[in-house]
Design a protein that fits this description.
Layout lengths: L1 E3 L11 H7 L1 H12 L9 E3 L1 H7 L3 E6 L14 H17 L11 H7 L3 E6 L2 H13 L2 E7 L4 H8 L4 E5 L3 H15 L2 E2 L10 H9 L1 H10 L6 E5 L4 H14 L5 E7 L4 H8 L23 H10 L2 E5 L1 H12 L16 H10 L2 H7 L6 E6 L6 H8 L3 H5 L8
Parallel strand pairs: 3-11, 4-5, 4-7, 5-6, 8-9, 8-11, 9-10
Antiparallel strand pairs: 1-10, 2-3
Helix pairs in contact: 4-5, 4-6, 4-9, 6-7, 9-11, 11-13, 14-15
GO molecular function: diaminopropionate ammonia-lyase activity; pyridoxal phosphate binding
Keywords: Lyase, Pyridoxal phosphate
EC number: 4.3.1.15
């Protein structure tokens, strides 16, 4: 399913606050933060010229977030960054002087961090990022997980020192419980979704994602004409759309938001013209995108800066994983998790539909950017779906010419 953005605000400039959140100043702030992380390396931008030729487009680039900070997903940029910002702000308040990224290891800052507890709900990846940020500074951390979070992903979060709290129901239920528990216990919620009265911290999480967009633009030989980006609550898609709108202005690419057809809350929000909560249905293989309520701040940005919304099926997602693992001859193999290849799945669906291609202007001159938002964060699940060990795929390099 594909719909063009019907919102009356489509194409309008971002609100001033959102422009400040995702514009050039945000990119500069992130650069200062990343300069003080010794584990920071820009993630690869991978050209897939053979698949581009197969799809009938001029170029296809994939930004591979599977190695970000050793956490396996783009989420590593958001939650940890928000935790660091919040600790430094609290330290500045208590110490009565400016505190910057260079002070992250200072004893007086770590002593203050040790008095703070951060909490969030997660499908797996956001919780790892929040836990890593808390561990970096010596804060406590509680992560709420619902029944759909796999044991391997729960273990990875616990391995970073976080307390695991199990919640019945869906991701959205765990978001509500994280807010309730935090209010009762004096914890700070670092959520990747927003609701009335709670926007600043999700905004910081989104701001962290600007770094990968900036890296992609710097590495591409020419700016993209089209971007396909996946959405859960919409934070990633909004960060990508908003930064591209601020950075490129009238030259911004056509941006398509891609969701699972079993959890398409952003598409339904676009139809309704306001953030909506949809009914939970059957679980989706794209577990990191299994969200049923759109983030308020994300929708405010997407209403203006997204151009189309579409869904992909379970089979589409698994096919994208396999296509990246077994690439066209001459292209590089890529390890993409269940949700990681969803943007590419959207492109593959559009490429095979003449009407959709025409609606999006996705012709022979198109230069496409997609994001591999996660690697094999559950290796057993990856083997089940792809039939290959992710370590072998990662070491395969380019497919031989045939």
């Amino acid at each position: 399913m594909l719909i063009l953005n019907p919102d009356p605000a489509h194409g309008a400039p971002l609100d001033a606050a959102d422009a400040a959140l995702l514009g050039a100043d945000a990119a500069d702030e992130l650069a200062r933060y990343l300069a003080h992380r010794p584990d920071h390396r820009p993630t690869p931008l991978i050209a897939l010229p053979c698949l581009a030729a197969r799809l009938g487009v001029a170029a296809l680039h994939l930004k591979d977030e599977s190695t970000r900070f050793g956490l396996g997903s783009f989420k590593a940029l958001g939650g940890a960054y928000a935790v660091v910002r919040l600790v430094l702000e609290e330290a500045a308040r208590r110490l009565g002087r400016p505190v910057g990224y260079a002070d992250m290891g200072a004893p007086e800052v770590r002593n203050i961090a040790a008095t703070m507890t951060f909490a969030c709900a997660t499908d797996g990846n956001h919780g790892r990022s929040v836990a890593q940020g808390a561990a970096m500074l010596g804060s406590r951390c509680a992560i709420l997980v619902h029944a759909g979070v796999s044991p391997a992903r729960v273990a990875a979060i616990a391995g970073l020192g976080a307390e695991i709290i199990r919640v019945d129901g869906t991701y959205d239920d765990s978001v509500e419980e994280a807010a309730r528990l935090s209010a009762a216990r004096g914890w700070t919620v670092v959520s990747d979704t927003s609701w009335p009265g709670y926007e600043r911290i999700p905004g910081l999480v989104m701001q962290g994602y600007v770094a990968m967009v900036d890296e992609a633009l710097a590495a591409m030989p020419a700016p993209p004409t089209h971007v396909f980006v996946q959405a859960g609550v919409g934070g990633l898609a909004a960060a990508v759309a908003g930064h591209l709108a601020e950075r490129l202005g009238a030259r911004r690419p056509t941006l398509v938001v891609v969701e699972p057809d079993r959890a398409a809350c952003v598409l339904e929000t676009a139809r309704a013209g306001r953030p909506v909560r949809i009914a939970a249905g059957a679980p989706t293989v794209m577990a990191m995108l299994e969200c049923y309520e759109t983030s308020l701040v994300a929708w405010r940005i997407l209403a203006r800066a997204a151009d189309a919304f579409m869904t992909v099926s379970e089979e589409d997602a698994v096919a994208a994983m396999n296509r990246l693992a077994r690439p066209e001859a001459g292209d590089m193999a890529v390890v993409a998790g269940e949700s990681g290849g969803a943007g590419l799945a959207g492109l593959l669906r559009v490429a095979g539909d003449a009407g959709a291609r025409q609606a999006l202007g996705c012709g022979a001159e198109a230069r496409i950017l997609v994001f591999n938002t996660e690697g094999a964060t559950d290796t057993a699940r990856y083997r089940d779906l792809v039939g290959l060990d992710p370590a072998l795929v990662a070491g395969a390099g380019s497919a031989p010419d045939q």
